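Researcher: Before we compare anything, I want clean individual predictions. No alignment, no superposition, just each chain on its own. First chain goes here; please echo the sequence and then give the structure tokens.
Model: Echoing the first chain and its structure:
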Amino acid sequence: MADPELEAIRQRRMQELMAQHGVGGSGGKQQNPEQQRANEDAKREAEERRQMMLSQILSAEARERIARIALVKPEKAKGVEDVILKAAQMGQIAEKVSEERLISLLEQINNQTTKQTKVTIHRRRSVLDDDD
């Protein structure tokens, strides 16, 4: 979780975005195989660093729980990981996150993002029905 590592990840991401938008002189979305390999390597390296940071922050049980969540809802697991990493970078996490703390965090996130379903029934009136 060192700052130079974070800065290196940010620089790589900025280069990827510039290459995608044609700012870096590549001239469009077409990339040669060397650039594609470099982008894939950068993504893989960033993901490895992310997993390394998570392994330092989370207990083994908490990592297992996130892995199980990722099997069912990968976007939710990624969001929870992002929240945990952001909290760790801001210094809000002083010790390893236990499974119980992870569960309470998941419950808080679920309460904030719960979608309420509203069912409205519109009954059709028949031409033969009279209101009289």
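Researcher: Okay. Second chain, same rules.
Model: Second chain and its structure:
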Amino acid sequence: MSLDVRTITEDDLPNWIRARRTGYVQSPTPSKTEVAFRRELMDLARAQGAFDAGRCVATYRSFTQRLSVPGGASVTANAVSNVSVSATHRRRGLLSRMIDRDLREAAERGDAAATLIAAEYPIYGRFGFGPATRVTEWEVDVFRTGVDPRHAGPGDGGRVDYVDVAELREHGPALYERVRAVRHGLVDRTDVWWRRNTGALPMDDAPWTEPSAVVHRSAEGTVDGLLVFTADDRWEAKLPHQTATVLDLVAVSPAAERALWLFLLSVDWITSVRTGYRAPDDLLPDLLPDPRAARVVTDADLLWLRPLDVPALLEARTYPVAGPLVLDVTDPAGPGGASGPAAGRFLLDAGPDGAGCARTARPADLTLPAAALGSLFLGGESAVRLAALGRVAEERPGAAGRADALLRTGRRPWCADVF
């Protein structure tokens, strides 16, 4: 019997969730709570499933996302999530059918890019996605830091206050949007995200445990940072050995960020801190008198980006220097091997105040696949490095270095959320 790949209906949702759980090697049967959560979370018109004799065997969905780019603006992205194919139905082109349709519809809508978090690295490059941000997680030995808890309070005239989840929902969304305006790579957080992460919208039947949360207030009383964390309860020989795990730490200013880290490292009984996913160039290690107290436990790619509308994407950000660059983008990732939406030769005329980008017949400076442009766009990857790897071709000597001067950013891009 042929496999039916189609948009799902509300009646399909429990079957679709079961297939997703099966593909993720989880207990298959969803609870009524999870079905209700997914229904509120999902736009069914952008959810697809593959069905074999009425049984869902592959899942896929997308949603509209806003991605912050260098310079403080945001672009509209087609965010891909919940991709699964049951082990019984692999190598039948199910993902290709679903993602080809979704990316075609995204390009028709005018989305500048598509994004995803890749559970498995080898899959998505062939669809034009490239890793665009990386994350690092540290484990901090509090006793080795050299931080004196007696002097770890804010030194900028501000203060740190505990807040409950209601206050977190009140202050968090506006603060996070302010942070997105100064930190590229972050994706927007919807009302559903805030309710899910503050206990107002349960995802499953597991009891929700309220985390600890604090905000940093500036000397003027404005909330300019927040920290959410949990701590275990472990004692040995009547001595505390508690690990604090950071769930969220965002701040508008380096002063607020420093105050929140030093606050957490001064909390009684906490002997170790797991930082959660931070940017590779996070300030934390070098905020410590002894940076070696922060040990790297994770270093990996996170957000992947696929260009759809190259001019719209490149015009959305700013550039540290001025200059033209001609990019010949190859994109064979369309349906049936046809050219995808990012294919073409583009003249980027860029500068600190913005950029123009349009198709051109001028000779190319660089030739690169759409996936490589996805890796370069946010400024975290080097064209010189990709050229050395054979993933970018210099058509003019020194073009990769010129691309780096235009595209690289002073801080690494950072995506804080898995979606």
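Researcher: What stands out in the second chain?
Model: The radius of gyration is 23 Å. Additionally, The mean pLDDT is 96.
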